[in-house]
Write a structure and sequence with these properties.
mainly beta
């Protein structure tokens, strides 16, 4: 059974930092493209960042230079380091694993507020 479990969300002030983590089980993790998506209230879910099996990364323009995605294939985890957070970064952040299947985590809330 494929399972993704996110952690690390919370409340932070503008300019602050958070680190999200996603632990995967039930898949050959190293083969999967891992991604972080977010959904703000009233908006569609959007890609924040992704990382391929060989470590190539892709970022939404809105987070380039502020967010960093990384993976640890030995631990089956993917992280999202978020710095210089802005009010618009608020939303539910979802971990995604994509290869032969497409699986989502349950999401973790990130709230940026003063």
């Amino acid at each position: 059974q494929v399972q993704l479990v996110e952690s690390g969300g919370g409340l932070v002030q503008p300019g602050g930092s958070l680190r999200l983590s996603c632990a995967a089980s039930g898949i050959r993790f190293s083969m999967y493209i891992m991604g972080w998506y977010r959904q703000a209230p009233g908006k569609q879910r959007e890609l924040v960042a992704s990382i391929t099996s060989d470590g190539s990364t892709n970022y939404a323009d809105s987070v380039k230079g502020r967010f960093t995605i990384s993976r640890d294939n030995s631990k089956n985890t993917v992280q999202l380091q978020m710095n210089s957070l802005k009010l618009d970064d608020t939303g539910v952040y979802y971990c995604n694993a994509r290869f032969t299947t497409n699986t989502w985590g349950q999401g973790t809330q990130v709230t940026v507020s003063s």
